[in-house]
Design brief:
By secondary structure, the protein is mainly β. It has one helix and four strands, in the order E-E-E-E-H.
Amino acid sequence: MGRIVDAAGNFTGPAFVISEGTESRIMVRAAYNEAKNQFAVIFGKQDATMNIYAALLDAAGQVLVAPIKSAARQATSTIQALPTIR
């Protein structure tokens, strides 16, 4: 689930679904693209292994690009264990 928050920390609308399923989402990170008024969201999801996913949302929280598996986390990889958006 996700929610849009304004600069003052207030919710601007209802919660919305970013990724379906019952597996836990962990290490969630989001970044805002002011020029396109879009959000990129990345998160870890425990499937058969821990995988890193990325999704693209518009400013209202509508999913523009459904979550795509971008990497399978390797136990020795700190970079994949703690994903970051820049």
